[in-house]
Amino acid sequence: MLYLATNEEAKVVVAERLLGVGGTVSVQTLNEIANVMRHKFRLPWEPVVDLVERLRWLLVIVPVTMDVHTDGLRIAQRYHLSIFDGMIVAAALATDCTVLYSEDMHDGLVVDRRLTIRNPFLH
After folding, report:
1. Distance in angstroms (rounded) separating the CA atoms of residues 88 and 11
2. Cβ pair 88, 27 in contact under 8 A
3. How many angstroms separate the CA atoms of 16 and 71, rounded?
4. CATH homologous superfamily, domain 2-118
5. Is 42 left (phi over 0), alpha (psi -120 to 50) or beta?
6. Which one of 30, 49, 68, 91 has the fewest CB atoms closer than 10 angstroms to its CB?
7. Cβ count near 84 (within 10 Å)
8. Residue 43 burial (C-beta neighbours within 10 Å; 0-12, 13-18, 19+)
9. 80: left (phi over 0), alpha (psi -120 to 50) or beta
10. Contact at 8 Å (CB) between 87 and 28?
């Protein structure tokens, strides 16, 4: 979803296609999007807040609860993910997602026999 804020046309098309079918996103993902937009892309607050608010209207939002946090730590340790990625995976599992799209995680990784991580730019 972060690519909606870039000029990488091919990735924008993929992000728009994924948003068009709906989905679920964790609060952790929204935090990471805002952080990258502010610090890596050096964007002002207005487009950051605008994108996050659009995503909140288009997608189901999963909070980082204590259960998600606990499971996220387990997942990060077991699958050698960052803690932040573990939280994203745990949120996806908590809502019974079967596919998690991420460019940065391990494409093809199956977590707990229920969730497959896919890089949407490779498939």
Report:
1. 21
2. no
3. 30
4. 5'-nuclease (3.40.50.1010)
5. left
6. 49
7. 18
8. middle
9. left
10. yes
Residues 6+ apart with CB under 8 A from 23: 59, 60, 97
| CB distance 48 to 107 below 8 Å | no
Domain residue ranges in the chain = 2-118
**83: its two tokens:** 């803690």
Cβ partners under 8 Å of residue 24, min gap 6: 59, 60, 61, 62, 91, 92, 95, 97
Q: Are 62 and 94 in contact (CB under 8 A)?
A: yes
Distance, in Å, from the CA atom of 3 to the CA atom of 34, rounded to the nearest integer, reads 12
**pLDDT tens figures, 27-76:** 999 999 999 999 999 999 999 999 999 999 999 999 999 999 999 999 99
